[in-house]
Write a structure and sequence with these properties.
The complex is a heterotrimer of chains A (about 270), B (about 270) and C (about 260). Chain A is about 75% helix and about 5% strand. Chain A is mainly alpha-helical and about 270 residues long. Chain A folds into 2 domains: about 45 residues; about 200 residues, Orthogonal Bundle (MetI-like fold). With about 270 residues, chain B is mainly α. Helices cover about 80% and strands about 0% of the residues of chain B. Chain B has 11 helices and no strands. Chain B is flat and about 80 Å long. The mean pLDDT of chain B is about 85. Chain C is α/β, with parallel strands linked by helices. Chain C has a domain of about 140 residues: P-loop containing nucleotide triphosphate hydrolases (Rossmann fold, 3-Layer(aba) Sandwich), CATH 3.40.50.300. In chain C, α6 packs parallel to α7 and α8 runs parallel beside α10. The radius of gyration of chain C is 19 Å and the shape is globular. The chains are: A mainly alpha (about 270), B mainly alpha (about 270), C alpha/beta (about 260). At the A-B interface, α1, α2, α3, α4 and α5 of A face α2, α3, α4, α6 and α7 of B. Chain A: It is found in: Cell membrane. Chain A: It is a multi-pass membrane protein. Chain A: It comes from Parasedimentitalea huanghaiensis. Chain A: This is Phosphonate ABC transporter, permease protein PhnE. Chain A: Keywords: Cell membrane, Membrane, Transmembrane, Transmembrane helix, Transport.
């Protein structure tokens, strides 16, 4: 806020001139960057396809309806695999994320100088890379199949879970830890009595939250050969079997809605 | 000595269980164990294949120590720029569309029909996986960044409008009412009563979403929707782990930089 | 019993929290430590059981020098020092019973404590203590379901089940209402008498301190400026500890309250 004098009269303005100028400048830059970005996208697009899109969409839509319900018989097993990838992947990830989180939290790390940076590096590198990319890599290493998907999901989840968990650990009430230490408890007892009870609700919340995300992600892992219902999706897309595609998409949508419902219920029960 | 104490002395003590009904407790426990056994049993691991793959895994780890930025420098550069372009453009467009939808989806300032429509859009956007959307959009619009851009914009809408709506629903009602009591119009009410409260949070969320969009743009290429993902996919297909490592490192560094930047900007705005 | 010699603590920031403090507390004596915020009361207490590491000087408990101990030895000696906290510092998500039993952690092994399989005599003792403070019915309630006064009672039980010879009490009444404050102070003093415990009680409520304890030590900017009986705590002394203010009301009130107490 600023007051300036124009023609001998005081004029109120929300910001002074300099700030106002900076804000306009930022807008200008932002707009210019956006225009440039749009140009890039536009240059890489065959606009003919774009104008054709409504027709193509209608065409695909027409072929996709009605879904081929009988194909459902072949979807139960991949669906079971998908569920397992998500669940076991989450369990595996949590087992690895817990020690990483304790090493990364400022108040529990054994060494802030050596161990903590390593833990943070693990968190950042596993978190920045999407599970589909991990799957792409692991299919090459472990061979195609459910196992690669499982490992991909769990690696991707380590960083995510460890980050949220270590933030929760850093937020605990230190006096409770102090009180347990003052009784003459050992390091591990302090952990079990002073720290773990405080982060347990956060841990449960994170686990369910991540399981929900993992179920979504594991539905598409099959696209790169890492098992689950995505394999069927890929197969149907390749053969342009649109009625099957629409059925699979419906199943995925249903699975996602159910998982969201389950995770909401479980979180409600815990907290 | 009280009666309650006498009843307890000499008796063993046990922590009251988390789930008080024993039937439910055992059912959950046994059910969980059975599920785990079945699930683990149904995953057949070809250990011979894994063993052979270990060598490749090791090569990949080595590649990380020795990434190759140069031999496919042109493709990497184009891919990274395309990813950044998609991420930025889709975030801008996403924000533009999210603001009206977020306002419409806030129960305290919106009318019921508008509220329901906006919530439906949000639910749809959140339920559909980005990759699935990208596949469909590639089928409709053809290969290239346009499909990726549209996918990310759509995903941004679900993310931002939902959080925005929640923010508005939580915000200080009195402040908005004070402005309302001056007889302001709907738009004025928004600009003076709601906007100032929501903007800092919106900026923070937008930058966070830019970060997510960039990460996502790296995978959209796998299904042909433009960006660095296509280059990465090709590198993996050709077993050029050193190039793949270079790309992954660049993604990690960019994400870290964005996160750092968003931290600074958020601290300044709030 | 408890002897501090030239105890000094300088924090990393350069703040001198304690300055050559010499103090001796005999068995069975309850001592109140008063002084303005930032005088170093909390630091003093925490230097004794080494939750805060003293910079120099020594602390002796009986004939053991605490300041020279390694981690294992320190753990053993900490069992002899019960601590009671300002915000109760109960582990909120554990039950009352677990909180009380956590006072035995120094005596049982990790797995026993982890599986909550405490020796029967510890369990009995926990119930006896809970009964003594009137909370035996609450044993299986979660700590965060209790009121402030009840929580502080549980905190007292946790300290006593350690079977300590010294109690370190840090602002036990700061988060409580006046009535509960008195009840808690009375309970602490009574228990110390029953068990012949030495105790150092940090307290900022001068009137409350005068009411219950036999010896008062004043701390100002980390230095001891007063050591005497409640009767010797005059306006002049309070000004020396806390700075200029009209103290006549405080002292007056205390005398009134004492009379009230005597009349009851």
């Amino acid at each position: 806020m600023a007051i300036s004098t124009v023609d001998g009269q005081k004029v109120w303005q929300r910001r002074d001139r300099n700030t106002q100028f900076k804000i306009w400048f930022a807008w200008l830059i932002g707009t210019a960057v956006f225009m440039w970005c749009w140009q890039q996208i536009s240059a890489a697009t065959t606009w003919q396809f774009f104008w054709d899109a409504p027709r193509i969409a209608a065409d695909i839509g027409g072929r996709a309806v009605p879904p081929r319900w009988s194909y459902m018989d072949k979807l139960w097993e991949p669906l079971w695999d998908t569920l397992n990838i998500a669940t076991l992947g989450t369990v595996l990830a949590l087992m690895m994320a817990v020690p990483v989180a304790f090493m990364a939290a400022r108040n529990t790390t054994p060494s802030a100088l050596f161990v903590r940076p390593i833990a943070l590096l693990i968190i950042v590198s596993t978190r920045s890379i999407n599970s589909l990319i991990w799957a792409l890599l692991l299919v090459k290493i472990l061979g195609p199949g459910v196992f690669a998907g499982l490992v991909a999901i769990s690696i991707r989840s380590i960083g995510f879970c460890a980050k949220l968990l270590y933030e929760a650990i850093e937020e605990i009430d230190e006096t409770q830890v102090e009180a347990i230490t003052a009784t003459g408890a050992s390091r591990w007892q302090v952990m079990a009595y002073g720290i773990v009870p405080q982060v347990l609700p956060a841990f449960a919340g994170i686990a369910v939250f991540r399981w929900d995300i993992n179920l979504r992600e594991s539905t598409v892992l099959g696209l790169v050969g890492a098992g689950g219902i995505g394999l069927q999706l890929q197969g149907s897309l390749n053969t342009l079997a649109w009625p099957q595609v629409s059925l699979i998409l419906l199943v995925i949508l249903f699975a996602v809605v159910v998982s969201e419902w389950v995770s909401a219920k479980v979180r409600g029960a815990i907290i | 000595m009280s009666v309650a104490l006498e009843a307890r002395l000499g008796q063993p003590w046990k922590k009251p269980p988390f789930i008080s009904s024993p039937g439910l407790r055992w059912a959950l426990l046994i059910g969980g164990v059975i599920y785990l056994i079945l699930a683990i049993y149904s995953i057949d691991v070809n250990w011979a294949r894994v063993y052979r793959g270990l060598d490749r895994g090791w090569q990949f780890v080595i590649a990380f120590a020795n990434p190759d930025f140069t031999s496919r420098a042109g493709e990497i550069k184009d891919g990274m720029i395309e990813s950044a372009v998609m991420a930025f453009a889709s975030t801008v467009v996403g924000i533009g569309i999210s603001i009206p939808i977020g306002l419409g989806a806030a129960r305290n300032i919106s009318i019921l029909p508008v509220y329901l429509v906006c919530r439906a859009v949000i639910a749809l956007s959140r339920a559909l996986n980005e990759i699935v959307v990208a596949i469909l959009l590639v089928a409709i619009f053809g290969f290239g960044p346009l499909a990726g851009f549209l996918t990310l914009s759509f995903a941004t809408i679900g993310f931002l409008s939902k959080l925005l709506a929640e923010e508005i629903e939580d915000m200080d009602r009195i402040q908005a009412e004070a402005v309302r009591s001056t007889g302001a119009t709907w738009l004025q009410r928004y600009i003076y009563g709601i906007h100032p409260q929501v903007v800092p949070r919106l900026i923070g969320l937008s930058i966070y979403r830019l970060d997510i969009n960039f990460r996502e743009s790296a995978v959209l290429g796998i299904v042909g929707a433009g960006g660095i993902g296509a280059t990465l996919n090709t590198a993996f297909d050709r077993y050029e782990f050193d190039t793949a490592a270079a790309i992954l490192l660049m993604i990690i560094v960019t994400v870290m930089a964005l996160e750092y930047l968003s931290g600074i900007i958020r601290a300044r705005v709030q | 019993m408890l002897r501090l010699k030239k105890l000094t603590k300088i924090y990393k920031t350069g703040d001198r929290a304690l300055n050559d403090v010499d103090l001796e507390v005999p068995t069975g004596q309850v001592l109140a430590l008063i002084g303005p915020s930032g005088a170093g009361k909390s630091t003093l207490i925490r230097c004794i059981n080494r939750l805060v590491e003293p910079t120099s000087g020594t602390v002796e408990l009986g004939d053991v020098e605490l300041t020279g101990l390694g981690l294992g030895g320190l753990r053993k000696e900490r069992r002899r020092m019960g601590m009671i906290f300002q915000e109760y510092a109960l582990v909120e998500r554990l039950t009352v019973m677990e909180n009380v039993l956590s006072g035995r952690l120094g005596y049982v092994g990790f797995w026993r404590s982890f599986l909550r399989k405490y020796p029967q005599k510890d369990v009995d003792e926990a119930f006896r203590l809970l009964d003594r403070v009137g909370l035996v019915e609450m044993a299986d309630k979660r700590a965060d379901e209790l009121s402030g006064g009840q929580r502080q009672r549980v905190g007292i039980c946790r300290a006593l089940i350690q079977n300590p010879s010294v109690l370190l009490v840090d602002e036990p009444t700061a988060s409580l209402d006046p009535k509960t404050s008195r009840q808690i102070m009375r309970l602490i003093v009574e228990l110390c008498k029953e068990r012949e415990l030495a105790a150092i009680v940090n307290i900022h409520d001068v009137a409350l301190a005068q009411m219950f304890v036999s010896r008062i030590v004043g701390l100002k900017l980390g230095t001891m400026v007063f050591d005497g009986t409640p009767a010797e705590l005059t306006e002049g002394v309070l000004t020396r500890i806390y700075g200029d203010e009209d103290w006549s009301e405080t002292i007056q009130k205390v005398e009134d309250e004492d009379e009230m107490d005597a009349a009851q």
